[in-house]
Design brief:
This is Glutathione peroxidase. The chain is an alpha+beta fold. The chain is 26% helix and 18% strand. The chain has one domain: Glutaredoxin (3-Layer(aba) Sandwich), CATH 3.40.30. A hairpin with a 5-residue loop joins strand 1 and strand 2.
Length: 159
């Protein structure tokens, strides 16, 4: 099993297989518009714009499981991200990232890339998973880790 075995609903409603991103370096992020970490959208977009032509993609998955910080529907989320942060990277429909109804992709990610002290649970918005071109999870970053802090790692994976 790999990340390419999963499907997800894009923010516009259509289902897509993650196999569509095979061969790309991916950064998979659970996002929330009303979170204090929302300014990271701008760094995520900058990295996406900078490296998209080299095969880098950010995949944003809105989640409302942490203090209700993503209360809007998909249209509101999409508009907010585009208008306030210039987001053009792929955004997906709102998902759960923990618990009984967690999206299978996030269950897989947390099983294969535990956080601090081996914790498999996502504890907050903007937890980030870096995936290489073969679909291997290379690293997991805490919400407070800003995307520019691991830009060198992204560049190395793109070589």
């Amino acid at each position: 099993m790999s990340i390419y075995d999963f499907e997800a609903k894009k923010i516009t409603g259509e289902m897509i297989s993650l196999e569509a991103y095979k061969g790309n370096v991916l950064l998979i992020v659970n996002t929330a518009s009303k979170c204090g970490f929302a300014p990271q959208y701008e760094e995520l977009q900058t990295l996406f714009s900078r490296y998209e032509d080299q095969g880098f993609t950010v995949l944003g998955f809105p989640c409302n499981q942490f203090m209700g910080q993503e209360p809007g529907d998909e249209l509101e989320i999409d508009s907010f991200c585009k208008l306030n942060h210039g987001v053009t990277f792929p955004m997906f429909a709102k998902v759960d990232v923990k618990g009984d109804h967690a999206h299978p992709l996030f269950t897989y990610l947390t099983e294969h890339a535990p956080g601090m002290l081996g914790s498999k649970k996502i504890k907050w918005n903007f937890t980030k998973f870096l995936v290489d071109r073969e679909g291997n999870i290379v690293n997991r970053y805490a919400p407070k880790t800003k995307p520019f802090e691991f830009e060198d790692e992204i560049r190395n994976l793109l070589k």
